[in-house]
Amino acid sequence: MKIKELRFISSLFGFIAVIIMLLGCMAALSVTAEASMGGFSVNPIFPESQRPDEFGFFDLWVAAGNQQEIGIAINNYNDEDIHVSITLLTSNTNRNGIIDYTVPGVSDISMRHAFADIASVPVDEVTIPARYSGQIPIFIDIPVEGFDGIILGSIRITNELTEEQIAASGLTINRYSHIIVVRLQERDRAIPIDFQLGDVGVTEVNFRDTIVADIRHPQPRLTIGATVNSQVYSSGSNTPLFERRNIRADFAPYSVFQYSMIDDGEINQASLLPEGRYIARIQVFHEGESWEFEREFQIGETMEFDSVQREAMDSAECDTIYNSVCDCETANNHVLLLVFLAILALLY
Length: 348
What we know:
single chain; alpha+beta; Immunoglobulin-like; 6-stranded mixed sheet; 4-stranded antiparallel sheet; 19 strands; 19% helix
């Protein structure tokens, strides 16, 4: 048999082995998701102040100066005890322009009453016995002076693993979170839409340099379906270096959208820009209204980052979050690398 034919057969077996390994990984991931979903559930316990037409989350009319009590029921379907953590979060707009109830984010400096600050839980970790349902109260201290618009947050309930469970799980960490949204309103008053431009500068997101503009939403309301256009120019030039159009964004109350002015395909080019002064121009549109901003910023050895801070994604642990997206970019890259190597094996 010719050497070329032997190489082809060897490469073919290598390719088949990689495919089998990938299928095995996919099967393991599907089993993990199924097991985590069947472990426990969470149900809201609605108070009398719950709006009668909404039962998917807490949507409450509250009174100034009162303490509002709500509750959650945690149902353990397992044959062993589970340990869960309870985290109270203030809603935010994440870097993708999506309202996020799953993790802490950036709030506007004008926010006076964050949900995470006015809500409390007696214990932030609890053990639920096997085949048992436990109830946890949550207390919300409504500001004495009341508030306009809405206060928006969430309750995150996550199963916490013991050291033995983590060791037994190997590379896959089976954590699962339930999210229950909480919306508070004290008075019925229309709130106008407003956008403002905060800091603009170069920062690192997911280990890549980009130009980030803080689009502020300093109002106690939800604003859904805004559109953002942007351009980056060298100072004195009328030709944009980078341009983005029709980027959709939803804004939580008192949120800050840390908007990347460079498309993902060009994002590494930010680190190649020479030192100097640049101009950022941003246009925000919503239901016939528009806001236009312009800001000069500098790139150099002593760049001013202001409140835009360096952020690197921790990909060591990737939790599966209920009603949210788990961004396992590192895992995806590994799969793509394996496929690429398999194709190279066939070619050579």
